Amino acid sequence: MAKEIDRNKLRQTLYQGHFGQSGRELEPGEPVTVTQMVLDIDQVKAYDRNPRRKVNPRYSEIKASIRAQRGLNNALEITRRPGDDLYMIRAGGNTRLQILRELHEETGDDAFRRIHCLYHPWQDDAQVLVGHLVENELRGEMTLIDKAVGLEELRAEFESEAGERLSRSEFQRRLEEVGYTVSRRLLIRFEYAATQLLPAIPEALGAGLSGGAVEDLRRLHQVIADLWTEHGYDDELLEPLWTQALQATDGPDWDVSIGREELERELATALDLPLRQVRMELETRLQRNRADGPREPKVADQPPPKQGSEEQAERNVSDDTDHGIGPAPAAPESTGSKEPIVASNDTSSGTENARETPSPSTSPSPALSTDDPEPTPLSDNHDKPEANANVGELRERSHAIAQRVARRYRLDIYMSTWDRGMGFLMDLPPPEDILREPQDPQQTRRGWVWWLLVVWSEAMDDNKSHATFPDRFELGRMLHENNHRAVHYRVGYPYLTTAATEFFSHPETPDTDFEDLMALMRICRQLARTAQRQGMDIWRDRT
């Protein structure tokens, strides 16, 4: 039988006071739900892992607005990491917090010291980082590299939780779970930018290097690696060469063409190959890579996907499918929700560098000058050299045709006759004569003609000709000093493999230009053959 409870003892126990330390105040607990607060500005700190590193370009404008209205229109969203004394910005608002601090210091106005906040219970670092990525994406304030580094930090958080390296597909799945979607194509691009390019060209990336430029570098990296291994070199030996070549050209005005030329020179030296051969080999491989699509890079320590698995199926999806980056879309039945963010990785990464090659979409304009009489067509054999012409005669003829073309585009002022080489030289235009303006079809056309005449003169062929150039020839001096970067800042660096579609076969290219340039090429070819047959060094022997 159960023992009977003594009712008197039970009553006495209930009447006893708290048996702990009387008078000690308990620490207030954190709110367990979203709560409005008014806090002193010193109680809130900026998010210490904010993915956006650059100062907001609208900083002054935002500051003027906050000053005028003596505070914020919207509450700052905050949270607090367990164990921290200070609250922290949860999703956007770091710029506004900094401005409030400055305004309070400048004015002493308490309106800037007391801030309205919306507290959210702490979840984890991954959720806070996602919140800042989403907020900055909505505002369009992030460069490509900021997004890339933010995603790499988020991957590290997920891997820390999982205790293992995540495959790309698993990373995508976890991003979707926390409300953030990134297409596989962009994920590869961001991963490459953060892990491969950031150590090499931090200034260029920080200045807003575009997604297209990053993709061009990734393709170039692949074909250089293929060429490197085919010559029997270890992959690990290529990475220092790649990084050092890009580091040597890094800067806020950097573009792919400058880095590529430095890489080509370093590669030619390392492989002991002629520079021309390296350039042709890389361009051929790049054309094939563009046709086939770039290979998907491996994730370190990532297990191979099983046949028939979801990850294998994803790898079979066309790499051209780009679903953007942003918060995960709402469920189909949620008709009242906002549209999902679909933002290109170039949203705020800066426009394409003005130094880049004229694009096919830029239609060349008619010739700038029509004062010269129309040249006789090639069919009349006017410009076909005689079979027994000597080097001196061929040089005179090549100069005459080159000058005729240059005069139509007001480039003849940069041309001079020469008693060596191909008989003529094209010098650099002054900085104010911009030959690489994508928005100006006339200048675009002039740029192409300048480059084609330089190529036909073979002035940029290799170092063996540079030492013999006239002292007044600025382009030759820069090439002799190996100052290719300064040259390309002035005139860009078009890939001549695109000349077929952008110039020669373009419907607006006059037949006279086409015929003259073909005649010039024919004469230059005969000149080189004649000099070889006569045992002449065309870069040293005068006529």
Automatic annotation (TrEMBL):
This is Integrating conjugative element, PFGI_1 class, ParB family protein. It comes from the Bacteria. Residues 357-366 have a biased composition (Low complexity). Residues 286-299, 308-323 have a biased composition (Basic and acidic residues). InterPro entries: ICE_PFGI_1_ParB, ParB/Sulfiredoxin_sf. It comes from Aquisalimonas asiatica. Residues 286-395 are annotated as: Disordered.
